[in-house]
């Protein structure tokens, strides 16, 4: 089982890292399939840890290349970080978790389909002014959802920023990467505060190594070798399937 999961996690990290994402939604979709029968607390902890492992390198890469405007990064994260902590700290039954995760995954799949079929590859020209308070509130709402479900939130933030012409495409990727990192850490802190972090070295250890390798490789060469949109399309199908299955149950 662990070998198959490592391969899948490696592919997800490889594909997502070039766009500044951690792949949390896909990790959760994979782990939620009945084939693996993974405990829901272990799912949340593992997905967040994998997010941190992937986007840490991405944040460094984007910052070093000048595509991470820190003022905007903190503007988006100031409200989201405490709300991600609160969302993760809230007591949640397994049925409630899977209901929320089903909704979150279905929405994530629809957003990925939008990116694949409707989002144009035209250069984004940032708007002359952006409403920092409004984006901060949006970031906070996404942070709360990310804390409750174990998803970093970048997959929701990125389309919002692109539609609002918040910044250039590369800067938005850098901002999404930073957003995922700080919210995933806040989510883990919330789990730790209520003693709910579940870490199985034999299970999560190999997966962390797989996503670190995939993330490092993806941030450097995947955009040149892979067709990211088609990889995203295949991933969207998986996420949509997992989300609908949870909602039906």
From TrEMBL:
Q: What is this protein called?
A: Probable membrane transporter protein
Write down the species: Chitinophaga arvensicola
Q: Any coiled-coil ranges, and where?
A: none
Query: Can you list the GO cellular component terms from the UniProt entry?
Result: plasma membrane
Keywords carried by this UniProt record: Cell membrane, Membrane, Transmembrane, Transmembrane helix
Localization per Swiss-Prot or TrEMBL = Cell membrane; Membrane
Q: How does it sit in the membrane?
A: Multi-pass membrane protein
Q: Give the main location.
A: membrane
The reply to whether Transmembrane figures as a keyword in the UniProt entry is yes
tRNA-binding keyword on record: no
Protein family per UniProt: Belongs to the 4-toluene sulfonate uptake permease (TSUP) (TC 2.A.102) family.
Residue ranges crossing the lipid bilayer per the database entry:
7-30, 74-91, 97-117, 133-157, 172-190, 197-218, 230-248
């Amino acid at each position: 089982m662990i070998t198959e999961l490592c391969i899948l996690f490696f592919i997800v990290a490889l594909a997502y890292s070039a766009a500044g994402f951690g792949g949390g939604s896909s990790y959760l979709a994979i782990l939620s399939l009945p084939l693996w029968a993974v405990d829901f607390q272990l799912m949340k902890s593992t997905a967040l840890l994998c997010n941190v492992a992937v986007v840490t390198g991405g944040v460094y890469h984007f910052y070093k290349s000048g595509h991470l405007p820190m003022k905007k990064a903190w503007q988006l994260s100031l409200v989201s970080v405490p709300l991600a902590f609160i969302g993760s700290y809230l007591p949640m039954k397994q049925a409630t978790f899977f209901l929320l995760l089903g909704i979150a995954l279905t929405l994530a799949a629809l957003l990925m389909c939008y990116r694949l079929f409707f989002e144009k590859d035209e250069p984004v020209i940032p708007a002359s002014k952006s409403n920092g308070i409004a984006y901060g509130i949006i970031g906070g709402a996404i942070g709360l959802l990310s804390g409750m479900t174990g998803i970093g939130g970048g997959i929701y933030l990125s389309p919002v920023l692109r539609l609002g012409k918040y910044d250039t495409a590369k800067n938005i990727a850098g901002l999404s990467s930073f957003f995922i990192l700080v919210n995933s850490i806040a989510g883990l802190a919330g789990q730790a505060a209520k003693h709910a972090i579940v870490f199985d070295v034999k299970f999560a250890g190999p997966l962390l190594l797989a996503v670190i390798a995939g993330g490092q490789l993806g941030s450097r060469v995947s955009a040149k070798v892979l067709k990211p949109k088609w990889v995203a399309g295949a991933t969207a199908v998986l996420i949509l399937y997992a989300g609908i299955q949870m909602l039906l149950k």
